[in-house]
Records
---
Amino acid sequence: MSGHANWFELPADDTARARAFYAGVFGWETSLMGEDYHVITNGAAGAIAPKDAGHTQPRIYFHTTDIEASVRKVAELGGKHDEVLTVPDTGRIAHCADDQGTPFSLYEPQS
């Protein structure tokens, strides 16, 4: 099914502090993936990631079965999208914004 939310990322200046906070609030545990990217292992499907200039607010990913068609539709409807990126052993993603500038991302799982 396309369009359902299937991943999120919470950006943090200090990922250790953020992990401690969310562990206290929700009991979340995480597993390190990469240098400082922490996948939640016992809760919602998402991760705690380092904050940077392009990632200052929570990011939600919506599932698509055809990311190329989805980014074309984003553009047709007045939105914007970045380049489609391949994430090894995971799938493909594209960071987008709707026609009012609200950010979201698309995710096409690896087949």
---
Amino acid sequence: MTANDDSFINWKNREEIAESMIPLIGKLHRERDVTVLLHSRSLVNKSVVSILKTHRFARQIDGAELSVTETMPFLQALTTLDLGPSQIDIGMLAATYKADDRGLSVTAFTAEAVAGATGANKIDRREPRDVVLYGFGRIGRLVARLLIEKAGSGNGLRLRAIVVRGAGGEDIVKRASLLRRDSIHGQFQGTITVDEETSTILANGNEIKVIYADDPSAVDYTEYGIRNAILIDNTGKWRDREGLSKHLRPGIEKVVLTAPGKGDVPNIVHGVNHDTVKPDEQILSCASCTTNAIVPPLKAMADEYGVLRGHVETVHSFTNDQNLLDNYHKSERRGRSAPLNMVITETGAASAVAKALPDLKARITGSSIRVPVPDVSIAILNLQLAREASREEVLDYLREVSLTSPLRRQIDFITAPDAVSSDFIGSRHASIVDAGALKVEGDNAILYLWYDNEFGYSCQVVRVVQYVSGVEYPTFPATAV
């Protein structure tokens, strides 16, 4: 038998194990509201190859690929426990088990590591929480995909309605088609049917009412059986408290804006300041995609090295706000053709940092250049640190932050020497540190942060909504604080 034969047999064996993991992961998710993770990456609804590729990511931890043969025993141990709603990271279980020298069995170690989610300690399953999308553009449709994907057992967030302005014949058919197919993010994972008579989209069993209204004041959501819902405004038309308060109609309890909030509207970046949201707060903002990209790594750098001042330059993909060809636009430069030009424009991300990180006294400035790509941007974060550091030290620190810290869902880390923007389409992180591009000299550090300004940001929005609705379940084993 040749080495090639050995490699092929090994691959087929791992495929078989990964295939046997799928029903275990699915049953835990559907029946117990348990989301199985592998180093912060969800394994729910993943294919055999996707599970194997996610295991390969573990090379970043100790230089060796994590095998399904190592994680499968922990997954099997989870199925024997009286688990409550939670997120359980089998990659972290495997890593911490290796470092444990007490000689415990996998079953005993697992039971101890996730004790906070079992027996008398487990939390109650939440009642489904209604969600309404106001607007159905780029972010709205991606948030819809995520909500449908995460419906799971039906005890989490439940997308009940979409509010749009009527646009004439076959409106609902065309909107459903845009949800089904996306030129950047690909096909919807599931089935979609449309009932024009009842104005309903049925997506993977989720009945979504399409409500036509020209103004928030025209809708009484209780007429559609919607109660205590969270409304996600992704139109950006209203950004202050007075305007967003128009959404607080019968059936709506909270309003979440997918744009920077103005005035006293809190700007929330999940992972950084989401735990500051007051229980009685009815209106909040998820800030911008760029704010979400820079604030987590900025916080990480400030916590470890201190930051005296900084500047962020975003090289941003073009958006629907720009013109396809030269035409009138109320903003300077944005009237020039987006697919043909680099366009200098403003960004509010730097000023929004103060809302998300009020304890950071450093002055942060910012500017932006829109470029002719349809998705994925990069933020170049230039920082003056409070102490000197080496490039290797900063790299090791950010790598560890991305793997084991409370910010690991926000910050990813890549060492690929030939990575380009399209590689990050579909990334669920707020930003990805490009290790090869990082520059450090004395007290100056320049971080290059990729981010999918559509999908990664939509993931952050859904995380905020999960948190304020009480369906963001604790993660085990606990990460370092």
---
Amino acid sequence: MWNLPNILTMLRIVLIPVFVVVFYIDSPWAPYGAAAIFGAAALTDWLDGYLARKLDQTSPLGAFLDPVADKLMVAVALVVLLQADPRVLLALPVMVIIGREITVSALREWMAEIGARAAVAVSNLGKIKTTAQMISIVLLILKNSIFGPWIYDIGIALVYVAATLTLWSMLVYLIAAWPSLSSEAKKN
């Protein structure tokens, strides 16, 4: 149960409050520290899955915790970023990304209940979406850094790419689940 992949996943969860504290520290180094913490957490998201498969250490705990840790880290980062820049420009993609995560999580849970979880398994599109999200969040965190405002502009553009991929992947999952969703409705 406590293998290296699961420890990395737990580390990602533990880093969430550390990220928040560092994000809000009134210091010129805070954006760099918060970006580094988020970046490290994002790397553990990739690394724990890779190691679990490579070392044959997949587990029910890891299968449960990995997506939870990922969604918590992304949602918390997006919320603090939106609090720091409460404009519609950022609110729209944040709403789409968090809303999609809730919708797809509920869909996966329901599909698992009816024994059709494989129909909504993580796809390559979901992995590309996650990568775009992670990079955009790091760039958005670096808003008040030496890189200047252009890094934030790139982050905004990339978070819109991530939000678009988010909607697209949600649509793919809903289409895959539609036969189960519509057949269940006919039975009731």
